[in-house]
Amino acid sequence: MDNLKDMKDEVLVMTNASDGNKPHVVERIEQDGSLKTQPLAKVKPDGDFLKIDRSESILEAFFSNFKRQFDNPSDFRFYHIPAELLAAAKDMADLFRKPEENAAMIDGYRLDPEQHVQKQDLRQAPATEEPAPQQSTKWSMEQVDWQQLARMGITPESLGEIGTARLLNGHESAVLDIRTNFEGISFETPACIRLVESPDGKPVLNIECCRQRPELGEYMGTELPQEVQDSLLKTHNAGRPIDIRQPDGTVETCLLSFNPKTNRLHHLPIQDMKQVREINGVALTEDQGLRLMNGESVLVEGMWSERRQKHYDARLQYNVCKGGFDYDFRGLNRKVEQGQTERQEIIIPQKLKGVELTQEQKDALKAGKAAYVKGMSDGGGGTFNAYVRPNYEKMKFDFFRWNPDKSQKQSQGQTGGQPKQSAPTASQNRRIRKSEKKGVGASL
Questions:
Q1: pLDDT per residue over 216-265, tens digit each?
Q2: Which of 142, 153, 299, 350 is the least crowded, having the fewest Cβ atoms under 10 Å away?
């Protein structure tokens, strides 16, 4: 993709985990707090969108307002893409639906809402209060060898404010085009960079070049079982210890992780890991500590977020590439009734396919029951009516002609405002396909 610094206008793209990460271009936030958006696959380059023009003030105000209006802002992801790329919007849409698989291509456009919210809060602080301290970084600008980076075509301007802050905190960069010289021949190669601490405490540049595709069949001469390969692709971690033969011939038990940006594997001997006894205010049990040391995903409940000032739960798993833990929040907002199996909770939106849901409808959907919704948009200019029910296995909503919570006989005999069904459609209550949504309302 083109270098962002060469682009003038940019637009804001949003995805929501509860909606399958379908990308939408943001127009604005309405007065009631709802987002005015358009599907990315259907936008036209000359459309009326929120043009951020690399303006920090617009982003700060947008994210501050967004955080106040939405209960689960962590379910959303935001990206800034050049407006010129909207001409290829239909081809780009699929990239955002699978952010982990396409991280190498889209992470360079990812925005961190919290960074902009913090700046807005600092500006809005009363003048009588002492100014809040600026967010500190692990290293200062003066400690970085910018001349070395400039020879590779990397500057603070090309990294941007967020990218520079990530570099100074020791985090891995997005995929960059690194200029190198080999035997007098100059060429560019995609790579990620990060600063690592040398024995004397100074930052040293680490460069990891990207492979065209992952090679997970073996690592350092050790053949990896298929279940380990599957886990590396799905979670980026092996999920269990792996015995790896070292260059000196010794065998060490290690944790193994996969970097999807560079398509490379990294290992860490378990004996080199420091045992963690407490995480974010929660004392770990001996079993939790041992399982984390063995690379397993472990549920830790009641951790404290200083920034959000509330407790939270997450599944933690050590990631060798990051040198820290992955936090997995999926399925942890759960409602468990006695005698029922624990299940994941689907985020209930304020609007569903353009229809403002009533409190009764939202309560039914939260309880896992079907709700009848009229006038939903079919995406082609028409509307349709259907029963909507959460699908916890696929983490999405299913649409039905009949009420799936009742038998066909009950549905045929129902009255009192419920829609009457014609005989041909009563014989089978199957989910409504996408292609059938046009005109569905007319038959209900």
A1: 999 998 999 999 999 999 999 999 999 998 888 889 999 999 999 899 99
A2: 142
